Amino acid sequence: MKILLVGNGGREHALADALSRENTAVELIAAPGNPGIASLARLASVKTTELPALVALAEAEAVDLVVVGPEAPLADGLVDRLRQRGIPAFGPTAAAAEIETSKHVAKTLMTRAGVPTARAETHRTAADAHAAVRERFGAPVVIKASGLAAGKGVIVCHTLAEAHAAIDRIMDDRAFGDAGNEVLVEAFMQGEELSLFALTDGTDVLTMLPAQDHKRLLDGDDGPNTGGMGAYTPVSLGTAALLDDVTERILLPTLHALRKRDTPFTGLLYAGLMLTESGPQVVEFNCRFGDPETQAILPMLDSSLLDPMLAIARGARIGSMSPLRWRSGASVTTVVAASGYPDTPRSGDVISLPDDDATRRVYHAGTTRASDGTLRTSGGRVVAVTGLGATFDEARRISREGAAAVGFEGAQFRGDIGWREAARR
Ligand code: GLY
After folding, report:
1. How far is CA 163 from the centre of its chain?
2. Is the pTM here over 0.90, yes or no?
3. Are residues 124 and 181 in the same domain?
4. Residue closest by Cα to atom 4 of ligand 1
5. Please, which residues have CB within 8 angstroms of residue 357's CB and are 6 or more apart in sequence?
6. How far apart are alpha carbons 347 and 302 in whole angstroms?
7. Is the CB of residue 69 below 6 angstroms from any atom belonging to ligand 1?
8. 30 with 90, same domain?
9. Is 383:363 a contact under the CB 8 Å cutoff?
């Protein structure tokens, strides 16, 4: 079984780890991969933006499956191109990926399908957006760039002044470029967030363990927003009853609406949820595995990832497959970020890492192998250290101690990943 994995982050390292761990007959090629993935896969120096070259690589290698990690190549139609060539690909088409790449499309679809989500308006001019805030929403309010903005296009505004400044930043200063051509003004939701991933053939789902991300840079959910500084799973709030409810009232109707739109969604549907007093509501959908939740969730998987992925990529149905099985215990992931992250991450610092063992995985993200052979920082989030334990407290300790053992100049990490779960206990 030959698999091409597209991507170079911690999420893809966790995918490579899961796929190679479950089946030693898997031959992995990663494009472009990273120094961590290099111990599990052959690396091909093709970037995730080079769509024709990725298709050519998949054809030349006669791969059985392509797994696409990041959203950008999905948005640009990599899966469409692969399918045109008859190559099984795990991930949605560009049209189906709009559930993530256009917050306006996602909101319209959810509203029409009766999927619980916050009230919102889409505006194409700053003047209209300002008027919406002033006349119909007030504060607190959420301002969102509709397009893909590398996870930074959602601004939670606690005052009217912040909301007006956010609209100006997105629409006048064009802080997120064309992603800000449309802006959503959305009612603020109060509650805890939960990430729920579902493998889907477009109709049925196999849900994964729920996880919770930590978007702020500093302990206590303080400081600037980041791509995610850590995650843990399972989340005790994510009971079986809650997941059944989310499946029935959110996942299945959304997939139905996507089929009705003639853009069936296959691959991994990521529901970003807010657990409000009136039940779970959708904050956003993503069209791919989340980062860093994947680094916490996949090491807990105790059944095949490849079987459902392959079935979905081949266009088969998964409705008769058994639910995914999970290890007992808990998993906590702590991201170790570069000095200056998130605004101006420094590159080029020499890294030393603790080893992987039965309770610890170190996933590479922003690392590179320098010409002198040393491992060096090359991105904002450098590595993620996942701790696996019989209990949440044990997993948390292993993750935190592992993060502290990562050595490079200016390394920063949060010591409180999972603090909400710890408080609940
Ligand atoms: N964990 C947030 C994301 O992957 O978008």
Report:
1. 26
2. yes
3. yes
4. 290
5. none
6. 36
7. no
8. yes
9. yes
> Could you tell me if residue 359 is inside a domain?
yes
**Which domain covers residue 230, as residue numbers?**
192-313
- C-alpha dist (Å) from residue 237 to 84, 194, 199, 281: 42, 9, 21, 14
**Furthest-apart CA pair in the chain: how many Å?**
61
Those residues with Cβ within 8 angstroms of residue 373's Cβ, 6 or more apart along the chain or in another chain: none
Find how far residue 195's CA is from the centre of its chain.
9
CB of 193 sitting under 6 A from ligand 1: no
Return the minimum-mean-pLDDT range out of 143-157, 159-173, 207-221, 350-364: 143-157
Q: Give the number of the atom of ligand 1 that is nearest the alpha carbon of residue 286.
A: 5
Inform me whether the pLDDT recorded for 151 exceeds 80.
Answer: no
The pLDDT tens digits of the residues spanning 365-404 come to 999 999 999 999 999 999 999 999 999 999 999 999 999 9
DSSP H or E run through 340: none
CATH number at residue 29: 3.40.50.20
Please write the tens of the pLDDT for every residue from 60-79. Answer: 999 999 999 999 999 999 99
Assign residue 274 the CATH number of its domain: 3.30.470.20
Choosing from 270, 273, 295, 297 the residue with most ligand 1 atoms within 8 A of its CB, the one to mutate for a pocket test is 270
- Of 170, 187, 204, which residue is a domain's last? 187
CB distance 293 to ligand 1 below 6 Å: yes
Give me the torsion for CA of 348, 352, 357, 359, rounded to 10°. Answer: -80
Q: Which residues of 125-162 are buried (b: 16+ CB within 10 A; e: fewer)?
A: ebeebbebbeeebeebbbbbbbbbbebebbbbbeebeb
Last residue within a domain, chosen from 165, 187, 209: 187
Strand 230-233 and strand 330-337: the pairing is antiparallel
213 lines ligand 1 (CB under 6 A): yes
Q: What is the DSSP letter of 191?
A: S
Supply the mean pLDDT for the chain. Answer: 97
How many domains does the chain divide into? Answer: 4
Query: In this structure, which amino acid lies at residue 276?
Result: T
Our answer on whether the CB atom of 228 is closer than 6 Å to any ligand 1 atom is yes
Q: Atom 3, ligand 1: which residue's CA is nearest?
A: 290
Number of continuous H segments (helices) and E segments (strands) in the chain: 14, 22
